[in-house]
Amino acid sequence: MSRNYNFCAGPAALPDEVLDQLREEIPDWKGKGLSVMEMSHRSKEFVEIAEVAKQDFIDLLKVNNDYEVLFIQGGASLQFSMIPMNFLENKESICSYLDVGQWSKKAIKEAKKFGQIEIAASSANDSYKKYPKPESWKIHSESIFTHLVLNETIDGVCLRNLDNLPKTSLIADCSSCILSEPLDVSKFSMLYAGAQKNIGPSGLAIIVIKKDLLIEKGDLPAMMQYKTYADSDSMYNTPPTFAWYLSGMVFKWLKKNGGLLNQKIVNESKSNKLYSFIDQSDFYKNDIDKESRSMMNVPFLLGEDSLNSKFLSESEEKGLLNLAGHRSVGGMRASIYNGVPEEGVDALIEFMKEFEKSYG
Ligand SMILES: Cc1ncc(COP(=O)(O)O)c(C=O)c1O
User: Is residue 134 in contact with ligand 1, taking CB distance under 6 Å?
Assistant: First the structure.
């Protein structure tokens, strides 16, 4: 089996070890003569797979008993709608949003359909290259909640220091930073993440929500209510069983490898190496404010835009995949989630050095 290094922003690289285990288990899960994909979600085997995965996630993030963990289909984008639908009473209800990048804008666009949106802080005037410090946020006093995207995947911008978060009802999209390092869940009313970056297959989102927010909202369709999922162990309908199972395998891999404390060490080492290399070069540039740089998504520009396609074709030939930046910002982007080993970052830096020598 040949495996390249995959720097895709999502669906993203999965750990080789997990894929090896998956290959073994696919045709015959633990001697049962069938794959997990073919199991009833009500079978005792699958219920156990689901419960263990949920518990491992809880253990990794140290989620306390005040919170419920839900597995919901529809990716992170459905959460952009479910959040205002569940928490706003009517179209006059007020909530606050941080406008800190492309995903923030999408979340705001959806929320506007359901209530009055106040912008607590925006980095639009900094071209989304600097995450506004929590001390500068202006949260409307009647806000039912305040929404933020903790790590903006496209822009490569992140709120790294959570020390001074306001003590208000915060809801965070953690899609591209969840499980990359320890996170103090108690600072938030709700967290959510699409699975396809640090967790597992796309289509699944994991939600961590304070139990006191699980209130019935009779006018909403059952599938749109958090309470429906909480009351049914996230199995009101047939859940995305394969995604849930594979996510569970990733949680076990994380636990085996020292949990989130170790992940933080590895991820800091990977991202520091890459940023240091870019910063010392006159050919590559990352123009994000240093304190706001993402540990997971590293965008960079080449000396000349005309070299972009050459960079992409030559890197692909070397087995370094999916380095194109998002179409809205151009340039390159290396997403270095948990599934990308440090050797992948080393190989990328080596390639970048050679490319600079040839064309710089
Ligand atoms: C920060 C962030 N939020 C939301 C999304 C949307 O996720 P999904 O495609 O699962 O709906 C993404 C996808 O890349 C993302 O990076």
Answer: no
Architecture label for domain 259-359: Alpha-Beta Complex (3.90)
Distances (CA, A) of 65 to 53, 71, 235: 16, 17, 20
91's CB contacts (< 8 A; 6+ apart) are 114, 115, 116
Quickly list DSSP for 131-159. Answer: PPPGGG----TT-S-EEEESEETTTTEE-
- For the chain, the structural domain boundaries read 17-256, 259-359
Low-confidence ranges of the chain (pLDDT < 50): none
Burial 260-299 (b: 16+ CB within 10 A, else e): beebbebbeebbebbbebbeebebbebebeeebbbbbbbb
Instruction: Locate 9 and state its tokens.
Output: 């922003």
Mutate to test the pocket of ligand 1, among 8, 72, 77, 80 (most ligand atoms within 8 A of CB): 77
**Catalytic position from the list 29, 56, 137, 197:** 197
Second CATH level (architecture) for the domain 17-256: 3-Layer(aba) Sandwich (3.40)
Report whether residue 155 contacts ligand 1, using a CB cutoff of 6 Å: no
Q: What is the pTM for the complete model shown?
A: 0.98
The residue among 136, 326, 299, 286 whose CA lies nearest residue 148 is 136
Q: How much is the mean pLDDT over the chain? A: 97
